[in-house]
Amino acid sequence: MMTRRSALLLLGTAAALPALLAAPRGAASTDLAARAGAFIEERGNQVIGIVNGNGGTDAKRDAVAKVLREAVDVQGVAQFVLGRHWRTASEAQRREYLSLFEETLVRNLSARFGELRGVTFNVGRKQMASETEAVVSTTVSRPNNPDVMLDWRVADVGGAPKIVDVVAEGSSLRITQRSEYAAVVQRGGGMDGLLRAMRQQLAQLESQERR
Amino acid sequence: MIPRLPLRVVAAVGALALVAGCNLPPPASDPEARAEYFETNDPLEPVNRVTHTFNQAVDTMLLRPAAEAYRIFIPQPIRTGLGNFLDNLLLPRTTVYNALQGNSDRAADSFSRFAINSTLGVFGIFDFASDMGFPPQYEDMGQNLAVWAGTLDGGPYIVLPILGPSNVRDTTGRIIDFFTDPWQWLGQGDTVEALRIARVVAQAIDTREGLIEPLDALKAQSLDYYAAIRSLYRQQRDRDIQNQSVGQRRYFDWTGERQGLPQ
After folding, report:
1. Chain B contact for A137, CB < 8 A?
2. Cα separation of B105 and B192, whole Å?
3. Among B15, B90, B138, B156, whose CB has the most other CB atoms within 10 angstroms?
4. Shortest Cα–Cα distance, A204 to chain B (Å)
């Protein structure tokens, strides 16, 4: 049986636990905005260097894809996008979903970045959007085109800043994708229907790249 | 002769289709699905999807080709000038709506923008106001209603035929907008009527032209285009209501370079 003292101790630890957990995170969050800004600037310059540099389109796309894989919290975004269906998915479904999601995300984004020759970008405001996420605002300029405002949501994942969302002119990629995927799961016969649709889309993206 | 259906039959079939086309909320035993249902707020989804498919067909056959032809055959500076002119026509209403929302600063800005561009900018063709610190603005009755109601919730999602994504609030707003457009009151006669129609058509083509690449990309990348549009519409409207969107300025490009064509 539990003694009075150990019960109190347990209570005490339980009460202190949130504070203990919050302390390092609180300290980290104060400089997360600054770190996120530097991180986006560095990665952005890296991508622009690749896009405007020498080399074939395929090589460039691969190089951009590599940067993205490192910079984006793919697992976190994937889980957010699947939402409540993540918990009910089987282990095999989760594994396939994650790999399909990563491929689609990277291909979609790197295909877009590949088009952006001659872009320049400026890092603007950096601020905390929530307790765990910072927003870095950037302005992407292309010659003869209106500027595009891109906001990058950055979170601390395992001690390193990672991108968790891109907000283009106010439209969040992960929120849009989440409602899309939910619709596919609901209408297209559950998780297997979603995986089928994702496989199909990936095949389509691949055939477009080869053209 | 065209056979005419009795009105009562049409009404009965219509009502039946509407009931059959309703999505009912999931049972209380599945709270998460229920929460999602109310968040999506699209009880008319089956009907909306049919309208969406119809709109897509109209877009593919009519609107997108028209927008592409517009881009190919009309030189860029003329398109910019025409777009500026059309945007300028919306400013008086924006000014009044800003005032009705109790936002006198923005009302003053949009009025100054209208005054400068209508005179210096020759009927709004040139946008000097942007350089003077009066950037583009746009307000409509849907945004007014949201501000007055104090909520971003616009009620169930509705896809309007031809006009596209909307909701209960914004559909109501559109109807009021139609009657409060000041250019609707001025003048009469066939020429004025023709100009009004020309304005609506030009506005539609100009808007679609600006959306060629974004919508193509969205279509290529989305698993469910309908759901993507639905989500994007809500996000965009939320931003418009809170005046967080940055007005897109149009630039003149005199180099004669063709844009947007496949390289």
Report:
1. no
2. 34
3. B90
4. 9
- Residues B231, A179: C-beta atoms closer than 8 Å: yes
Helical axes A173-187 vs A190-210, angle rounded to 10°: 120
Q: Quick check: helix, strand or coil at residue B161?
A: coil
What six digits make up the tokens of B35?
């929460």
* CB contact B251 to A (< 8 Å): yes
| Residue type (1 letter), B126 | F
pLDDT by residue, tens only, chain A of 211 residues: 444 555 554 455 454 544 444 444 444 555 888 889 989 999 988 888 888 888 777 888 888 888 888 999 999 999 999 988 999 899 999 999 999 999 998 888 777 765 677 788 889 888 888 888 999 999 888 776 778 888 999 999 888 999 999 998 889 999 999 999 999 998 877 899 999 999 998 998 888 776 6
> Nearest-CA distance from A25 to chain B in Å?
30
Tell me the average pLDDT of chain B. 88
- Residues of chain A positioned with their CB less than 8 A from the CB of B222: 180
Where exactly are the structural domains of chain A? 4-210
C-alpha gyration radius of chain B: 21
Q: What is the pLDDT of residues A147-181, one digit of tens each?
A: 888 899 999 988 899 999 999 888 999 999 999 99
Whether the CB of A132 is below 8 Å from some CB of chain B: the reply is no
Residue A73 CA to residue A162 CA, distance in Å, equals 5
**How do residues B87-101 score in pLDDT, each as one tens digit?**
999 999 999 999 999
What ipTM is given for this predicted complex?
0.79
Q: Chain B: nearest CA to A176, how far in angstroms?
A: 5
Give the whole-angstrom CA distance, residue B58 versus residue B103: 38
- Out of B217, B236, B248, name the one closest to residue A146 (CB): B248
Summarised one tens digit per residue, pLDDT across range B206-249 is 999 989 988 998 888 889 999 999 999 999 999 999 998 877 78
Record the tokens describing residue A33, joined without a space. 């905005």
Contact A169 B246 (CB under 8 A): yes
